[in-house]
Amino acid sequence: MIVNFIDYLRDRLQTVIYCCYGVMTFIVIWSLSVDTSHAHTWAEKMIPGFWSLFGLTSCAIVIMVARWFGKSGIQTREDYYDN
Amino acid sequence: MTISFIHPAFIMILGAVLLPFVRGPFRKPFMFLVPLLTFIDVLYLSQHPGTYGVYQFMDWELTFGRVDRLSMIFGFIMALMAIIGTIYGMHVEDEWQHIAAWFYVAGSLGAIYAADYIVLFLFWEMMAFASTFLIWARKDEEALAAGYRYILVHTFGGVVLLIGFVLRYQATGDLSFVQLNVDSPELYTWLIMIGLMLNAAVPPLHSWLPDAYSKATAAGAVFMCAFTTKTAVYTLIRSCSGFDVLIYLGIIMAIYGIIYAIMENDVRKLLGWEIVSQVGYMITAIGIGTALAVNGAAAHAFAHILYKGLLFMAAGAVLHATGKQKFTQLGGLYKKMPATFIFMLIGGLAVSGLPLMSGFVTKSMIISAAFEEHILWAGFALILVSAGTFLVAGLRLPYLLFFSENNCSEETWEKAKDPSWNMTLAMAIAGFLCIFIGCYLPFLYNMLPNTEIAYHPYGSYHLSETLQIMAFTGLAFFLLRKYVMPKNTISLDLDWFYRKGGRAFLWTVQNPLQWFDTAVGKAYKVVGISSLMTTSAFWSWFDWNVIDGIVDGIARCVRAIGRRTTLVLQRGQIQQTIYYTVSFAAVILIAYVWL
């Protein structure tokens, strides 16, 4: 059952991707209408969709830092300790 | 009212000792019963807070049972996890694994209820030694080496803790395990903190965790991921709340763990790095030290044990079925292991803090505490890490294991299947609780240590914040996914120093020291041997002629006396022999009484 459902979605991958974009747009639009009185800083009140930007950039930063860090010599061959 | 106090750790230890004698059809019910009884005992104690099990030992008063709100919540989750972990490992035939696991749980429960450093130390070491056997139980060369590294690192931590509390005892004459004065820390405050911190895997003392947890047995890792670090979190809450340095260490830890998790190719090592990152939240909260932060640390530890246990169980199911735990040897498994996929997804989403899941209602408490104390950088850093967590555990992990490119060999693909009933049941219980905690707040919130705090996670602003972060993290993953693909690499970490340092020591022993030893040997041969030969020739002559002469003389003498005695006393007639013996005994007896 689970497998069939996943296969059903995979066969319509493009539709699923569009649906995800739709959900994201909805979340951003909804966030504009949310009461910001519980915000932690002024930046969240001033910048619309602050957390969307924050999420996107955080994730990109984390990925790129890990990539750079790994390439700087931290990632090495698997038998490094075995010689 | 006095209540009868049975220490929960005692039940686990007794169970572990009796386990080898319970065989056949009784084994499985017994294995279910022991952690269940422990859990019931913990529940019973929670109804009766107080101090129990106080014993006088030499000059010290040892307290085994301090039952207050903080020890209650940790005792509760540890005992619950013992049930789940035991169910998960029920199919394992090797009884030593179960015995080690139960001693390990007993160590954790003992440390949680301990109210002085001696008892704490006793159980602390019990945990370290018992858990080492869960690594060794895997029985391959890598696991053996990792086990040795693990026990060495923990022994070091234990010694630091020991020195810390002995210095404190010397300075204050006090052994009670209570909040330290963190505003003006002494040397011993630092040492105690470092000793406890090592078990919580706080950098730079963290490398043992991913190293050991990835090498343990499938069932062993489920236990390990729950007990060591969270018991350490408990002890740090108890002793070091509000210690500023922990805020910095916690944030470093949270970020460091996530960066390494992204680079990781080994499924269980990735989960190990995730633990480092998540415990970073708790350590930050302990550093902040306000009532809300402490509640957050306890709540997050509670939720963390369940979802991390679930993730390790799902990863263990893959390992158990296929024998592989590298992304580059797996992939596309949803077709073969759909139930495992669902459980891993639940665990991954719970750790990411999706609304209606356990992570959402606990992690946010810590972030709110940071913002309330106006430590904005810490708050933002933790939110950044929560985006990273979703990326690693909610997206990368399930994607690479269950979708992505199929890297399985034909044999691996054949072997892959959903696990047995007991493993599925354990995952179902943990999965249910991950969702239940997120949906029904009073279950967890009523157990938290500080009762005066009211916290409401389901505000519309918080919901919109979380959903935006998760949605756009998903987008970033979708766009940048080619950069997080697994590679056949390992990542160097601070364990490089002791792993390579150990090699340097070995090299020193094998090369310069060996050369010196050989040189001494050669010199000795030339100079020493001839003088030794002369000396030994003399002693040989002396021995033959003088010593042997005396010894032989005495021997001849004794033989002669013996022969005479035999002729007189032992004529081969039993009556006479008895007569002489009894007379002799009577003479001795009378002499004794007379004198």
Describe the structure.
The complex is a heterodimer of chains A (83) and B (595). Chain A is built from 4 helices and 1 strand. Chain A has 2 domains: 1-34; 37-76. In chain A, 73% of the residues lie in helices and 2% in strands. Chain A is mainly α and 83 residues long. In chain B, helix 12 runs antiparallel to helix 14, helix 14 crosses helix 17 and helix 15 crosses helix 19 (460-480). Chain B has 3 domains: 1-240, no CATH class; 241-493, no CATH class; 501-594, no CATH class. Chain B is built from 21 helices and 3 strands. Chain B is mainly alpha-helical and 595 residues long. Chains A and B meet through helix 1, helix 2, helix 4 and strand 1 of A and helix 10, helix 13, helix 15, helix 19 and strand 3 of B.
Unreliable segments of 5+ consecutive residues of chain B: none
Gyration radius of chain B, to the nearest Å? 32 Å
Distance N terminus to C terminus of chain B?
61 Å
Structural category of chain B? mainly alpha
User: How would a textbook summarize the main sheet of chain A?
Assistant: none
Using a beta-carbon cutoff below 8 angstroms, give the protein chain pair with the largest interface and the number of residues from each chain: A-B, 46 and 49 residues
> What does the overall shape of chain B look like?
elongated
Number of helices of chain A: 4
Q: State the end-to-end CA separation of chain A.
A: 48 Å
Question: Which structural traits does this protein have?
Answer:
heterodimer, A: 83 residues, 73% helix, B: mainly alpha, 3 strands, 3% strand
Summarize the structure.
The complex is a heterodimer of chains A (83) and B (595). Chain A has 83 residues and is an all-alpha fold.
Structural topology:
The complex is a heterodimer of chains A (83) and B (595).
Chain A: H1 2-11, H2 13-33, H3 42-46, H4 50-74, E1 75-76
Chain B: H1 8-18, H2 27-46, E1 50-57, E2 60-67, H3 69-88, H4 95-113, H5 117-136, H6 141-172, H7 187-199, H8 208-213, H9 218-240, H10 245-263, H11 267-288, H12 291-322, H13 338-352, H14 358-372, H15 376-402, H16 410-415, H17 421-439, H18 441-445, H19 460-480, E3 490-491, H20 495-569, H21 574-594
Antiparallel strand pairs in B: 1-2
Helix pairs in contact in B: 1-2, 1-4, 2-3, 3-4, 3-9, 3-12, 3-17, 4-5, 4-9, 5-6, 5-9, 6-7, 7-9, 9-11, 9-12, 10-11, 10-15, 11-12, 11-14, 11-15, 12-13, 12-14, 12-17, 13-15, 13-17, 14-15, 14-17, 15-19
